[in-house]
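User: Predict the structure for this protein chain, please.
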Amino acid sequence: MNHVVTHPLDPDDATPMSALRAMVSPLKGKLRGVGAREPFDAVMERVLPRNDVTFEADTVGGIPGLWVRPAQFRSDEAILYLHGGWFNLGTAKASRHLEGHVAARAGAQAFIPDYRLAPEHPFPAATDDALACYRGLAKSGIQRIAITGDSAGGNLALVLASCVTAEDLPAKATLVGVTVQSPLTDLSLSGETYETRAEADPFFTRSQAAEFVRAYLGSADPKQPLASPLNARLSGLPAIRIHVGDDEVLLDDSRRYVERAAAAGVDASLDVWMGMPHGFAGSVGTLKASARALDSIGAFLSEKLRKVQV
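Assistant: Here is the predicted structure, written as structure tokens:
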């Protein structure tokens, strides 16, 4: 596929990746249920913080969350960032440092909503909250919005993009682009890399993923477009950029989505990072691939937010 860019493993990343694998291997597949919330947040809190962004609690569209603001930004632009955590884990606060790297590189303010989590609030609560937050941004005077997210947040970002594209929203805001990291696009878990990357993935197993997805979906059909953006109407979407590690059970979710989006006429491309696991961008400061991926994400967002729409 000519819309796929493969990045070889940087030799300098080999040693820290080996150390990471050795450290996390005893925990593979064991992050389960609501009891995983505290350790998950602790991992996210360890992302290298920046000293050139500020944080402010707010509520947008009725959804509480956190603004992440670089030193310079335009008040009529915003990034909507949907955090990861398999729909069951994660908070805006815990994700602030990762999104701080994106916001600083893009030169744009970002809002991270604390969307409702499963199993207390099953599907479609999270998608409802994402749409409510987008509408709130649009009604607040924001004219250009980009959507970002990682993992489950990548799922919500792509679902939201399809919803926004399909709706005739009353506000004048324009959805200018979407960039996500390692999104879950198929909640039926039919991707072949659940098998072919089962050994390579240092974090997740298919049974673990199925448990999180069941807690989120309940009895809902996993193949419906609001659950699996892979099955949504993709024509008419703005430019989409996806970054994923080659050592992920979720690799196929990214590959198949970009293939379908490109076939539907969308400006879609995929960056595959060899030797990298899920969430590798969070290792910024340790892995060269992390900084390079974040640089690419920031440049894409900056370009799309600044571009005059015609």
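The radius of gyration is 18 Å.
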